[in-house]
Every structure is written in C-alpha cells, then in structure tokens.
Amino acid sequence: MNGYERAPLAIRLGIEPLGVGAWAWGTRRLWGYGSGYGLAEVTAALHESLAAGVRLVDTAEIYGNGESERIIGSVLREGGLPARPVLATKFAPYPYRLSPRSLLSALDGSLRRLGVESVDLYQIHWYSPIPPPDRLLDALAEAVKEGKARHVGVSNYGAEAMRRAFERLDARGVPLASNQVEYSLLHRTPETDGTLEACRELNVTLIAYSPLAQGLLTGKYGPGSRPPGLVRRLGRAFGERNLRRVQPVVGILREIGERHGKSPAQVALNWLLAQGTLPIPGAKDASQARQNAGALGWSLSPEEKERLDLATLGWR
Where does the NADP-dependent oxidoreductase domain lie (predicted)? Predict the structure, then answer.
C-alpha cells in the first residue's frame, strides 16, 4: 500500500461527517421538483446547510439530466454563501461509454455545469462490467493527476468490487476515498454483505445515501399517508405493510429523541454517525436542512444505539 493519508474522508476534506444529497434538486418526475418546491427552496436548503456546518453537497450528472449540477452552479455564481461547499458528483458508466476517456469528458461536463475547475470528490455511480472497470478506475486516477478531482470514490459497489477498485487505484498511488451505498436503520445490507466491514478495514468512508429510508424514519408517514414523488410512491418501501411495520421503530426514535431534544430523523442520522459513516440526507428546503444538521453535536448512548440495533434487525 502506498504511503498516502488514510484518514476518514471528512477529516481529509475538513468537514463534518454529514452531507446533503441533491438528487431531488431539479429532478421533476421522480421527486416532483417544480411542484411544491423549486429553485428558491433548494437554494435556501443549500444556504441553510452551509450555515449549519454541513458542507458536503452530493450530486450526479444524471440527476435531473444535469439540472442538479446546473442549480448548484447557479447558486455558486450568485455568491453570498456562508461557507464554501465541498462538491461531490458522479459519472454514469453507461455501456455505450466504451472509452475510459468518456469518464474524463463527463467530468469536464460536470465541471462546466457546476462552474468550477475541480470537484472535491468524483465517483463512479454504479458497478458495470462494460466499460471495463479497471480502465475506468485508471481514468479516475488520471482525474486526480490532472487536478480535476481532489479525491475519488465509487458508489453501489459490493465488498469485493470495492476491494478490487481499492487495489487498482492504490497501484496508481491514488487512495479510494469512499463507497456510497444505501444504508439506514431500515436497510442494513452493508452490515451483512461485507461492505461496511471492508470499508472499515481499508479506511474507505461509507457514504450512506437514503439514510432516512426515503422519509420512512422521519415519522411523517404512516398507513394511509404516503409521500409525494414517484420514487417513494412506487417503491415497495412505502407499501401499507411497511408503513404499519415501521411505526414501532419510529416510536423508539421519538422516545430516544425526547431525551435529547431531537426529532426521529435526527436520531436515525445520529445512529449512522455512530456507525462511522457519512450520511447524505436530502433537503428540499431550509427547514429540512436545519433538521438534518441537528444530527450533529451530540451522541446516542451505547444503550440507545443497541436498542435501535435490535429493533431493526428484521429490516436487514
């Protein structure tokens, strides 16, 4: 292994271990952007996140067909932000992108939309055998060498694919900084498929997307009360069975939260922080951004964490 720094990504980036996911920014059909919330609301969410110390903003070229990146870029050009956002975006490894140069070209497109010369974290969005993974990883390393990305990561990679990615990048003298996967109290697969263990072993930060199970853990939804947006309305997670089944878990989150002056969502995010991960909950407006930031600055007791562990084992 090369002698580069292997500190957690948040420490290397100088940020709190919490980010904001920007999938819903500009994504109309799936999340309902433009209906109930729009540019003013997500701009306020970004400002509020930064003011509260949440600096990592995670987007992707495919979110809203680039609209998420364009929104972030327009907010950056307007200026007046309370802090500099730490930008993370992703490359979509579609099979027709046969050349590793396609990754570097896609990165150039993301940089143009964001209006920056480099991003803090560039990730391969999902594992795909075509184009060849090793060649894409070599292109990731080249992005670092060219100064277009400070750090690189992968997303939706299983444990073994992540280990191979780590070794390939390591041979090029570039650390694998992160693996972004779905992880929450209600989706604990990273604990059982070896991904979390491999991240800890290799000092790769696990970035947890959908950390509130797309809203199930907020306590806002229940039987007969489903959320808007195709992603959640059509997903099995929001079937009536799960909406009933999650209520005891939300009850425990409320009970623990009352002891700390926190909401169920803040407790659920704090559980992920205790796991050593970096959650990236979404925020459609300033209120949601403030709620997310409330997960920072306090800790669950070992007994509270264990209670949540046991209460959600059946959701693995």
Answer: 17-309
Residue 223 placed within a domain: no
| Angle at 154 (CA atoms; ends 153, 157), nearest 5 degrees | 150
Tell whether 268 is covered by a domain.
no
**Does residue 258 lie in a domain region?**
no
Q: Please spell the DSSP secondary structure of 201-212, one letter per residue.
A: HHT-EEEEESTT
Catalytically active residues, by annotation: 63
Does 231 map to a domain? Answer: no
124 pairs with which residues across the strands? 91, 154
Task: Specify the CATH number for the domain of residue 165.
Answer: 3.20.20.100
Ramachandran sector of residue 166 (left: φ over 0; alpha: ψ -120 to 50; beta: rest): alpha
DSSP 301: -
Q: Which helix (H) or strand (E) holds 152?
A: strand 149-155
| The total number of structural domains that make up the chain | 1
The SS3 call for residue 71 is helix
Whole-structure pTM value: 0.94
* Cα–Cα distance, 314 to 214 (Å, whole number): 18
* Coil vs helix vs strand at 123: strand
259 φψ region: left (φ > 0), alpha (ψ -120 to 50), beta (else) = alpha
Q: What residue numbers bound the domain in which 122 lies?
A: 9-216+275-299
